[in-house]
Amino acid sequence: MHGYASEKSSHLKRLRRIEGQIRGLQRMVEEDKYCIDILTQVSAATKALQSFSLELLDEHLSHCVVAAAQKGGAEAEEKVREASDAIARLVRS
């Protein structure tokens, strides 16, 4: 079971809201809205995705990585490397 399983419903609800924000951006462009207004909405959607990413990462660390660390060995090393790589990707984005 994945670390986010207990929050799956909440995560899906959040992602649907973000999807709605993106559709709103498309609509704004189609309706020739002011650039700054569109950029403000892009910033809000970006922040929502970043917030979701951090929550998912936290759940991964506290569930998957901790469980692997308790077992030790190669699986633990792999989970730590995966988490480290994910953090690096988030920092670069």
TrEMBL record:
A single GO cellular-component term on record: protein-DNA complex
Gene3D superfamilies cross-referenced by the UniProt entry: Metal-sensitive repressor, helix protomer (1.20.58.1000)
Domain of life: Bacteria
Compartments, as annotated in UniProt: Cytoplasm
Keywords on record: Copper, Cytoplasm, DNA-binding, Metal-binding, Repressor, Transcription, Transcription regulation
GO molecular function, one term: DNA-binding transcription repressor activity
Repressor among keywords: yes
Keyword Methyltransferase assigned: no
Record-linked InterPro entries: Metal_Tscrpt_repr, Metal_Tscrpt_repr_sf
Family in the record: Belongs to the CsoR family.
UniProt protein name: Metal-sensitive transcriptional regulator
Organism: Kribbella antibiotica
